[in-house]
Amino acid sequence: MKKRLAIISYSTSTADTYNEQIISLFSDNIIVDRFCIDSEYIKEGIQADLILIQSYNIFKLIKPYINKRSEIVIANRTILKSSLEKIMAIPEGTQALLMDENVDMASQMVSVIYQLGVRHIELTPICPGINIGIEEKTVIVLGETKYVSNISNKVIDIGGSLLDVSTIMNIGAKLNLIHILQRQNIRKSYKEIVTTDAGLSTIIGQTNRFESEIDILLQVLDDGIIGITSKGIITNYNEGAENIIGYKKSDIIGKHGLHVLPDIPFKYVLENLEPVKEKLIRINGYDIVVSVDPIIHSNKLYGAVAIVKKFNDIEKKQHKLREQLIGKGHRAKYGFEDIQGESEAIKRCIDIARRMAKSESSILITGESGTGKELFAQAIHNNSKRRNYQFVAINCGALPESLLESELFGYEEGAFTGARKGGKPGLFELAHNGTLFLDEIGEMPLNLQMRLLRALQEREVMRIGGDRLINVNIRVIGATNRNLKEMVKEGEFREDLYYRLRVLPLKLPPLRDRKEDILPLIDKIKKQFYSEFELTQEAKEVLLNHNWKGNIRELKNYVEYFANLGLKQIDVIDLPFDNEEDGNDIILTLNEKSILDEFWESSEGKIEKYLFILEELEKSYINKSRLGRRTLYKIATEHNVFLSEQEIRTILINLEKFSMAKVFVGRGGSLITDFGRKVIKYLKEKY
Asked: Ranges for the PAS domain (predicted)?
């Protein structure tokens, strides 16, 4: 039940001021009734747990109407710091009058002001109605300027009086609400008020400071803190414990901890005087990690304290710490939206990669240098369940074997000369719950391949110089521009590791196999350099037929070069190809070479005729038209090439079989493919 307080004063304004001050500290824990001394309601009897009165004179007047069980507090008053500053600013030697509601109240306030250190002026207490000599002196009033509105001399309004800290403490003690003041930090609430009770103020300040520091320490901790006495009674229970365990502080303080929280090993600690460290228990459906220590001083047991943490919170904290260890640079920055291209080849790769992202299996990305293997790896990570964790990348070909091993697996202190004090976690540990990207995996030494295989199979690693296994939950994405299958045959790469990595293979197409993306990519990349250059038709043709050995990386370099030329139009002469390079070197993939070898065997010595048909189809492709068998027969006759319509039909069927041409039904004619155009150049170079 709420406590009831009655305030009895000489004026309603004073009662209102005290009421506001009390409510601001005790909030909803108290009910306040206000009375003026001349109120008729007082004679009906004052029913309250505590009565606050302004002076002893008031007490004598209301004594007959007070319930005998009611407590009494006579107010000690004070003023604001700003009010004291106004008084201190009065010229020295001034004969001033201090006006309050009556002479007794005025005398009391004069005493308060002198106690606060005022010595440079003479104060005389007066009240309304005393006008002898008032016109000739400085008058200090406490907010009631109406009493001196007809006086022409200097009036200084220092505002109404306030309850001193000692009175507030008395109210809290008598109403059993001191704990409310402790939480409020009464000294902080009174920072704008000066007090006459220096001793009490000092004690409150020191006590509040100590208790506040302890309270703040307990509250800022994310961990739950639970303290019990030697008898098992719960005395401390912070917000962290409230959030983790679920019980409210008001419901658990004072209860028996061994009964309310039986899963926490308080009983063992109190009986055996031994701590329990990091025990996993379950409370309210959550996995909780708890440590309990006995509180012993001078061989006497005072109680025990438990520190509780949610297991999931520990995992999250480890994740944040790993982020700090590896730095922000190891976050995956790119997604599938950053992969540019509208060709069927790149669209197919993106579609496959999106599906792979949903899996937890290892991925092996293959492709020539500059095709965007790490870009795809980051996009896969950012679309996987591990997106909120680390993406740790390392180039296996950029470090010597010993350094690569220590980077991957870490080391313990003293493992080798120059080892960091305290040791160092490896990238496997730092990538826990995330993705480990092993770029240029084909360059990894054979000795390390065995350790990598074990880590992938067992999902555990051991630091160099260590003696314990560390469990890791990672996904591995490998990437290489080498033919690992050939390396396996030649004994340069472990076969078991190859198949462990190649659970989900992803082959990226070279830029020359997605020529329809070249010009759109140039337009997008040039915007990054704020350039508006245009390419001539001839320059476009040369760029489209360039071998692009460096793929997208090479293309970006060329666009940056064009942007820095400062030209509005780029022609063939402006292209930065090396002099010894004509831009027409043909590089075939292994699959294309295999197709070409089979085609060569099936051509039965008719390469010249096949080449003739392919060249004519290319001419029609450039002219944006198609050729039928009869038209090809007519052209062959004009060029004295002996080909029958039946031979031409057979050649077209074979060209379509080997993906070099597309034959349309009816009068649709035939169309050369990009591979067919590449074969023309290859045959011209080799034949």
From this structure: 210-258
